[in-house]
Amino acid sequence: MAAKLMNAIQYSRYGGGTTALKRVKIAVPDPKADEVLLKVEAVSLNAFDWKIQKGIPRPILPGKFPYVPGTDVAGEVVKVGSSATKFKAGDKVLALLSHATGGALAEYTVAKENMTVAKPPEVSVAEGAGLPLAALTAHTAVTHANIKLDGSGETKNVLITAASGGVGHYVVQIAKLGNTHVTATCGARNLEFVKGLGADEVLDYKTPEGASLRSPSGKKYEYVIHCAMDIPWATFALNLSETGKVIDLTPGLGTMIRFATQKLTFSKKPLVPLILSPKTENFEYVVNLAKEGKLKTVIDSKYPWSKAEDAWSRIISGHAMGKVIIEF
Ligand SMILES: NC(=O)c1ccc[n+]([C@@H]2O[C@H](COP(=O)([O-])OP(=O)(O)OC[C@H]3O[C@@H](n4cnc5c(N)ncnc54)[C@H](OP(=O)(O)O)[C@@H]3O)[C@@H](O)[C@H]2O)c1
């Protein structure tokens, strides 16, 4: 019997940006034993989606061409794999797909059951779609910074760079659940937005004061959660406490070399690369924060499926304030 076809967007080579995205009809995937088949209702894009297309993590990603990009999905379960027991057809869920397979920019997609979480009714489809990669990364970074999310422990001074972005806006909110004093960087037009998320001090990264990363109240940072790029180590070093650490969310070769060198020299002020290794319980935790109203998804822009290419251009711009969402 001929496979049922669906609409999808894919690309077949590295590079090309928005113009390389092609609208295609491909077979609806069949869930493997440990997967669920979802009818996609909304997708959020992440900076890493365009980086995969650009070939930055080549040859590791994507797993193969042609590739349907996108990893963050809100949708409805339509079929479950033979060993999947947590969900049934009709359940509303959120899912994080693997970067190797992608698959979000399509009418239907398959997700591993252990990377699928029930969507609470209190969280809208668009807000829920914003959560998977960005909120999980934010949660992982904050817990790497030893911030206790019940608010206990001594006050920690934390710097968060690019606090207006998809990841950064969740980092600020999660960090403020702990006992923290947060200094955050963003562009001038987002200063009030980032203060509204709970940051105690906000720096415009395009001013000399902002570029220096100096806390206006003179604090030295115990942790930096670095969601931006291209800030020289010397700038961080001047602002760190005696044992301050920088957690780098975009570790390139330079970070890896510094990390290795600092390990060998027992540096007290390390640069720590962070690559998300997602865990089900953390996914459930951030979704529960959203359910309780403690973690809000701020939506930069929403696009209908017919304008998904515009959403791709927006994420490539690097100027999103919060999350870029595509709705079906
Ligand atoms: N390690 C991991 O597992 C992992 C997981 C997810 C994401 N990431 C990485 O984390 C980084 C952030 O991701 P994202 O989704 O938040 O990106 P994003 O949404 O595209 O970030 C855009 C925002 O960052 C701001 N920004 C850019 N450069 C800045 C700077 N130097 N200082 C302050 N603000 C700056 C922009 O403000 P303006 O518009 O004012 O310029 C914009 O609001 C990306 O490099 C991404 O690849 C890593």
TrEMBL record:
SMART domains: PKS_ER. GO terms for molecular function: oxidoreductase activity. InterPro entries: ADH-like_N (IPR013154), Chloroplast_QOR (IPR052733), ER (IPR020843), GroES-like_sf (IPR011032), NAD(P)-bd_dom_sf (IPR036291). Residues 16-326 form the Enoyl reductase (ER) domain. This is Quinone-oxidoreductase homolog, chloroplastic-like. The gene is LOC110802762.
